[in-house]
Design goal:
single chain, about 230 residues, Rossmann fold, 2 domains, elongated
């Protein structure tokens, strides 16, 4: 998942980036409100972690603007402010959660996972798809008792599509959310297609993969009957 960290305390921002990248999130940093809003205009994000005490603009104003440009993102406010009024105002403006500083990075990750569970409608870490089970926490794919070895990028791609099941995703969307910035040169390449081909090949040795569909001239989607 793609995460934007808008935090002017550089050491904290870098610490969050390093921690979340180890947890397989794709992170980008902005140290000012202006930089963060510009990045939001240039691309979409799954999570935006927003400090309220930014040097060039109040974080609540940033939240209001960001929600208009990136309504699909989940927002977590990070701040040293302890006033109840700020918390209520942030939640009223569309924030999904509020984490006061100092905070544990493990708690931040836990809250992000809880938001994702609510947002995507799954109640545990194991997601069924066809003959397979995808465990997001353990980063494993099983068919019955057989574990199927996927590369890191293959698993990231499969799990992202599964979270957005029944929704066509373009190659550019997949590239942005799995690998970060997606240049025009990269868009002309076929590495998304290569990864999808490899996923199909590995999974089809164990079961049917007709749920992993190619959408002509668009991209791919995972189709699951609700």
């Amino acid at each position: 998942m793609r995460v934007l960290i808008i935090e002017d305390e550089r050491s904290l921002a870098l610490e969050m980036e390093a921690f979340l990248q180890k947890a397989h999130y794709q992170c980008e940093l902005a140290f000012t409100a202006r930089a963060g809003l510009r990045q939001i205009e240039d691309g979409s994000f799954d999570f935006i972690l927003l400090d309220l005490g930014l040097p060039d603009q109040d974080g609540l104003q940033v939240l209001s603007q960001a929600r208009k440009n990136c309504p699909e993102a989940s927002y977590i406010i990070l701040t040293a402010r302890g006033q109840l009024e700020d918390r209520i105002k942030g939640l009223d403006l569309g924030a999904d959660d509020y984490l006061p500083k100092p905070f544990s990075l493990l708690e931040l990750q836990s809250r992000m996972q809880a938001i994702a569970r609510r947002k995507y409608g799954w109640n545990d870490q194991a997601l069924p798809v066809g003959d397979f089970t995808v465990d997001l926490s353990k980063r494993t794919v099983h068919c019955g008792k057989e574990e199927i070895g996927l590369s890191r990028r293959e698993f990231d791609l499969l799990s992202y599509m599964l979270l957005h099941k029944n929704r066509p995703l373009t190659r550019m969307q997949l590239g942005e959310h799995i690998w970060g910035n997606y240049s025009d040169e990269e868009y002309d390449s076929n590495y998304i297609d290569v990864h999808i081909k490899n996923i199909r090949k590995k999974l089809s040795a164990f079961g049917e993969v007709d749920w992993l569909q190619t959408i002509r001239n668009v991209g791919y989607k995972i189709k699951i009957q609700e």
